[in-house]
Structure prediction request, 223 residues.
Amino acid sequence: QKEVEQDPGPLSVPEGAIVSLNCTYSNSAFQYFMWYRQYSRKGPELLMYTYSSGNKEDGRFTAQVDKSSKYISLFIRDSQPSDSATYLCAMSKRDDMRFGAGTRLTVKP
Amino acid sequence: DGGITQSPKYLFRKEGQNVTLSCEQNLNHDAMYWYRQDPGQGLRLIYYSQIVNDFQKGDIAEGYSVSREKKESFPLTVTSAQKNPTAFYLCASSIVRQRNSPLHFGNGTRLTVT
Prediction:
């Protein structure tokens, strides 16, 4: 079993839709949770960084962490074609960071 | 504009040749990292350095080598001992040395070995 599981998609939605991206993990020692966005042939860029369970909102993006279920989510409201990218989840503890394989998202105009 | 510069963007080599990928940062970050990205897999850590003149092996260090002679620079050499070197290589940095810190990434080097 991988430490971090992420559905690779691809996921295709119409413009304006609400997108839900998810990851599950097996190591309960993870304390910090991140979402990165990666455009084609580019490096990942940090979107959200959270600690502990709960929700964090930043504009159209909401990150949700449920430590009891070992499940994290990223919601994108009013999705735009410019949101088309691969989304990587990542989680870390003091001496280690692990990444999901990424979910490829396409938002169609 | 602060950031991480990786060069070249694309690199082609023949099997059996060593090749060095460049990574320079002007963010004044202490820690630097090299990751490998393959389709369908999460990023895998090759090497990391938390301070000048010191570096540690990551999960897949075999066939790779690094140096950290300057704070700004962390070059990666892919040696002929690396069995499957064709991949997308990402350099990253973080402001603090703890490995749970969020990372800033460069735009990668795509290496193709034939």
